[in-house]
Amino acid sequence: MRWILLSLLALVLVAPARALTPAQARSLVAGEVESRVAALNAVLATADDKTVALIQALSDDAVKITDSAVFVMKDGKGFDPVTGAEKPVPETAEDVVNNNEMRSELDAALASIKLFAPDDKVRAEAVKTLAGGDIGEAKLPLIEKAFAKENVPSIKEAIGRVRSAMLLGSADKSKRLDAANALGATGTPATKTLLLDRLKVETEPDVKSAVEAALRQIEARLAWGERLGVIFTGISLGSILLLVALGLAITYGLMGVINMAHGELMMIGAYATYVIQNLFRSLLPGAFEWYLLLAIPASFLAAALVGAVLERSVIRWLYGRPLETLLATWGISLVLQQAVRSLFGAQNVPVENPAWLSGGVDVMSNLTLPFNRLAIIAFAVLVLAGVSALIARTRLGLFVRGVTQNRKMAACMGVNTARIDTYAFALGSGIAGLAGCALSQVGNVGPDLGQGYIVDSFMVVVLGGVGQLAGTVYAAVGLGVLNKLLEGWQGAVLAKIMVLVFIVVFIQKRPQGIFAMKGRSAEA
Amino acid sequence: MSAVLTAPLPPATPGGGLLTGKSWSAVLAAIVVVAVLVPVLNLAVPAGSAFHLSEYAVQLVGKIMCYAICALAMDLIWGYTGILSLGHGVFFALGGYCMGMYLMRQIGSDGQYRLPMPDFMVFLNWKEFPWHWAVSDSFIAQMLLVVLVPGLLAFVFGYFAFRSRIKGVYFSIITQAMTYAAMLLFFRNETGFGGNNGFTDFKRILGVPIATPNMRMLLFVITGLTLIGFFLLARWLVNSKFGRVLQAIRDAETRVMFTGYDPLRYKLAIWVISAVMCGIAGALYVPQIGIINPGEMSPAASIEIAIWAAVGGRGTLIGPIVGAFFVNGAKSYFTQAFPEFWLYFLGALFILVTIFLPQGIIGLVRRKKEGST
Hints:
The complex is a heterodimer of chains A (524) and B (373). By secondary structure, chain A is mostly helical. Chain A folds into two domains: 2-168, no CATH class; 228-348 and 379-509, Orthogonal Bundle (ABC transporter involved in vitamin B12 uptake, BtuC), CATH 1.10.3470. Chain A is built from 21 helices and seven strands. Chain A has helices at 2-14, 22-29, 33-44, 49-59, 100-114, 120-132, 140-149, 153-168, 173-185, 189-201, 205-254, 262-283, 291-313, 322-344, 371-393, 395-405, 407-412, 417-439, 451-464, 469-490, 492-509; strands at residues 63-65, 70-74, 77-79, 86-87, 94-95, 360-364, 367-370. In chain A, strands 4-3-2-1-5 form a five-stranded antiparallel β-sheet. In chain A, a hairpin with a 6-residue loop joins strand 3 (77-79) and strand 4 (86-87). The termini of chain A are far apart. In chain B, helix 2 (55-79) runs parallel beside helix 7 (213-239), helix 2 (55-79) runs antiparallel to helix 10 and helix 2 packs across helix 11. Helices cover 68% and strands 2% of the residues of chain B. The longest helix of chain B is centred in the middle third of the chain and has 27 residues, at 213-239. Chain B is globular. Chain B has a domain at 56-297. Chain B is built from 14 helices and four strands. Chain B is mostly helical. Chain B has helices at 21-44, 55-79, 88-107, 119-123, 139-163, 168-187, 213-239, 241-251, 253-258, 263-289, 299-312, 318-337, 342-356, 360-372; strands at residues 199-200, 204-205, 208-209, 291-292.
């Protein structure tokens, strides 16, 4: 395939190419800028290898000139630009100086020549250069030719945009109309600014209206992209909140233990991920891409183990004293933070995304869905499904629910309530560890990791209602989307404050959260 | 479920007075120490003498006395009413900011930019003062705000929270959310309180230079007397019928309600009083330390107030003051000697006190006394 293309290109390029004449060479390097630009554009349409070499040399500041001759300098020796033969350079030869205008013309000329290069990458790069710069209409024939010949769709589209942009500046009114219509159909933020610029200088009324229509079209599309983007980041935040709050829904929602060290259990999960990553890097560099597969269970186990130890050593003694539990777990959180600082240092540690999680899907010109965020949403759904199945369908879940509803009765039925407490707390902690593992893929991993989420996650549980998983889900996603919507409107800090105020007001109306436990308890 | 203290109520003073004779002499001694002894040791005794009290020590004790007022306020709401607030740091900081605004105006044109506006406003290119700075050049108005702003915030917040019968841990978490929101708000430059730098570089108070030994000593004495005054006030409150109802609410709120009392009013009243005390503590703190920034509003700062009260002994009034001195004394020792161990120590304190010392230091002392008699 490639060699066919190559030969085709060679044919197209070579067939009409006329050899560079000495007069042309001279007109390119000497004289006023305007005349040199005109000469450049004249030779460009029919450029041969020698011409390209000369332009390249000009761009590299490697051309010297005397009254009668032009020299392309290479390794300190002079060559004739037309024949390519070596010539002695006289003492009187001077460097050709290019001003900024000439230089950008040269760059544009080189880029438009590169549009015919056989390598896809070189062509894509060339289009980018052209789209970034301001190019005169004189290069239009060349661009047209490249556009007609191009058969890689993405590059063709890009050349098409450059072409429309050039046509938009054309002196011909009908060409401008066509260009405006064409630009309206494709739509990137870059074309938008292009059209806006044109609108300022356009005088013809019907072209003006066409440009305006194109602008409206693009804006509508961009607005959709933005709206979808906000909703996506909202869902993404919601999925993170869900992961964080799921663990709390078990320890606080089911067991009634207020665990201020929940954020630090997440931190442990994130650091476990970091350790596994480093182990893979040093021991199994070949399988580095897949370190997450081991990091997920490792982060769960690490956090669950710490949770079980905490429950056995501290929290056990404080059941029924929620305020004291709050203070003691706060103390635990301080100790854990400082322990991590002592072990890993106070700085954030780097956790790398595996290659399959970096990058994203381009849905629209201004909307890219990053793979790591998509993966976290999927992960949150999986964890949610796992937890609800565990609570609803397993023997452990049955015991946990039994102990929650009536501890004494459960004990009478032969349930080892103390052991169930430990298991349940370890489970909640382990889920916090999973949340930490997920967070390590999108944010910084440092000793303060948990602090930022603890208030939010308690809000989710309080809003969702205690003792319910469904409420937690709705509250997490709802708060995530609400937060991002308000953020777009009022900025991050005010959005957060508004959400907190909203929750406080909401609690006024429904002190039990979205889904209240049914009952007649006088002590809420 | 409200937090039920396992200890019986602290015995009312025999004879029905505010304090026993012995305690009165202790209070008198405290007043003498604060108002006479410390100023003499600091100002009159020459610097070389063994009895000289350094500037640093005066500043440290002054700071801890402000914290002790907070701990006392925390004891009223937590120790006696059973409501754990994780938002007292906000009231403290609000009082401090009200004082700080006045002090910023007192800088006048002596700031870095030599302009009548505070430096951070010049930096933000503000041409005139925002609305909440309207009365900031009046000392009396700002001192009223020191009381009114925390009081009003506490009233509104408390009214809505207590009305919908949010209690226990729920209330604690909501107050923490309030703290967090307030901190975020004050970190913004646009809020008009100097963003994360807060207020600092004060020059004068009431036209008098602020960084002189005499001024520092005056502030110290005022703080000490305020602490003693608040202690007596709190003592009077908890021994009154009002205080008895508060303790009944702590132990069995539903029963209090069924007996015909409206817990809302009692809780709201003590909540506002407690907040105002913290505000005043903040206002005394800022001119002594010379800086106020949103860090004072962090959830961690608020929760530390609770641990001062817990370490000293809740429901004893004198305990939280002892706790504030013990914990903050330890803090200034540790952060100098072994900075990396301070958080271990503080964390361990949180855990050990809640598990092994629910009555705090005072409880320990009392138990010793009972054991020996």
